[in-house]
Structure formats: C-alpha cells, structure tokens
Amino acid sequence: MLTSISGRLAAFSWLLLSAITAMGLTLGSSGNVAVNVLMAVVFGLVGGFLLWRTRAAAILHRTHPADPAVETVLRTQLIANLAMALLGLAFASAAALRVWREAVPVFG
Q1: Nearest Cα to Cα of residue 61 among 82, 76, 42, 80
Q2: DSSP 8-class letter at 108
Q3: How many CA atoms, within 13 angstroms, populate the side-chain half-sphere of residue 17?
Q4: Could you count the other beta carbons within 10 Å of the beta carbon of residue 75?
Q5: Taking the complete model, does pTM exceed 0.85, yes or no?
C-alpha cells in the first residue's frame, strides 16, 4: 500500500516537471524549443516508467504476498520511490521558479 502511494507520488512529481517544462515554452524566446520539448518528453517518460514500475510491484505483491524476498523488493522499491519523489519535487520546484519567477523557459 505504502509502496503504491509513494510510487504514484514519485510519478506525479516527474509528470509535473514535464508539464512545467512544456508550459515554459510559452514564455521567452523560441531559441531552445527543441531542448525544452525533448526534456519534457524525457521527464514524462520517467514519470511513465515510475507508474509502470509501481504497477509491476503491486502485481508482484498480489501474486506472492507472503514471500520474504518480495517484502525485501517492496522495501527497496519504497526507498527508491521516496528518493525519486523528493528529486522530482525538487526539480519541479526549481523549474517552477524559473518559469514563473524569471518568466523564461526551463532550458534556455
């Protein structure tokens, strides 16, 4: 349960970063459009991967609920999800400051 919530939080933070990067394209010059679009796609792919990994961990837990090895994997997954959530939220905060405070694209 906690692994699923933390995985969704991690995915949301990276999808938020992707959205902020894409929103930044409406501001500033159009010199670095390709870089911003590419990075928005990369951040979105990271978020999608985190959602997929969370789903795979949930299926693993449902199929083998009492296996000690699965519990170890889920504990590791929880730690990784929390780290990815913190990293994604930190990057999203920095990108939001760049887009809305400085009124320029994230990369540019």
Answers
A1: 76
A2: -
A3: 29
A4: 12
A5: yes
Residues 6+ apart with CB under 8 A from 61: 3, 70, 74
- The Cα 106–Cα 3 span in angstroms is 31
| Helices 2-23 and 68-96, packing angle to 10 deg | 20
- Per-residue tens of pLDDT for the chain, all 108 residues: 899 999 999 999 999 999 999 998 887 666 678 899 999 999 999 999 999 999 999 999 999 988 999 999 999 999 999 999 999 999 999 999 998 898 888 887
Q: Which amino acid is at 26?
A: T
